[in-house]
Write a structure and sequence with these properties.
alpha/beta; 10 strands; 31% helix
Length: 285
């Protein structure tokens, strides 16, 4: 299970599993996508395009080549069976966490964050989640299905409870979701203005960071399944990642919802690659 499942790797992620501090892996699943499918193809585009980057980040002044990162490839998903897919993801992620490694998961649609956050929570019962997204993802169900990318944060709340989820950049959802959030999560609509203050409060607790790339305005990242106008700029996202550097206990993270085929220019994939590089370096000691 801990041998690479593909030949190519993300740039700078050539460590073997036993010596790695961080595990990178992809989840090619978009089985509950409600608008435009295609996130299953994200890592197929990301890995080769990552070689358009430098391994060094001038923003964080860190280099992937100086980090011990293992690219474990993509999980094999049982297509057509959402519950079995979630179980497959949970089993793999548990094995990584039990080996005392941090991980960066790349989706895939946002539902794939549910089992990876669950695995992190099982290891770190005081886990807190920072959620950056255009959408609330707080429905109790979508079209009768509780396992949906529109309900992923609600499913995480089922085990995390109140006071553990912090949402930023949200600009789309039902009225009921926004009302529910007032009682159960911290939600800043539209912007990331209070992120720095929240990060300061979470400085010493275990933190999982989940980034849905559709938080970015479609003029920045059109290659996503549910584009939502009115989003943040990429410089604002980089500033947010800069704030994460003050967190002392980031245990895992994910970057989800790139659909590369909707942006033939490749710009959206380039944005995803750079975000992954910055988040890998954020996880690194």
């Amino acid at each position: 299970m801990n041998k690479p499942l593909n030949v190519s790797t993300f740039i700078g992620c050539e460590s073997d599993y036993s010596n790695s501090e961080i595990v990178l892996f992809g989840i090619p699943f978009d089985g509950t996508t409600s608008f435009r499918p295609g996130t299953r193809f994200a890592m197929q585009a990301i890995r080769p395009d990552s070689y358009g980057l430098e391994t060094y980040s001038p923003y964080l002044k860190k280099d992937l080549e100086k980090c011990a990162i293992y690219d474990g490839g993509d999980l094999e998903m049982p297509l057509g069976n959402t519950q079995k897919s979630m179980d497959t993801i949970l089993e793999y992620t548990r094995s990584v966490v039990q080996d005392n490694k941090k991980f960066l998961m790349v989706g895939g649609e946002h539902l794939v964050s549910f089992p990876t956050i669950q695995a992190a929570y099982e290891k770190y019962p005081d886990l807190h989640v920072i959620h950056i997204d255009a959408h609330t993802d707080l429905r109790d169900e979508f079209l009768g299905e509780k396992l949906s990318h529109a309900a992923v944060i609600r499913r995480c709340h089922d085990f995390l409870g109140d006071g553990r989820i912090f949402q930023f950049g949200i600009r789309s959802g039902t009225e009921q979701e926004f009302e529910w959030a007032k009682e159960h999560t911290y939600l800043e609509p539209f912007y990331l203005n209070t992120l720095k203050d929240i990060v300061e409060k979470l400085r010493d607790v275990p933190v999982y960071i989940t980034i849905d790339l559709d938080v970015l305005d479609p003029s920045v990242l059109p290659g996503t399944g549910t584009p939502e106008p009115g989003g943040i700029t990429y410089r604002e996202l980089l500033e947010a990642i800069g704030h994460f550097q003050t967190l002392n206990n980031i245990v895992a993270a994910d970057v989800v919802e790139l659909s590369p085929q909707y942006d033939p220019s490749g710009a959206s994939t380039a944005v995803a690659c750079k975000t992954i590089r910055e988040m890998l370096l954020t996880l690194a000691k």
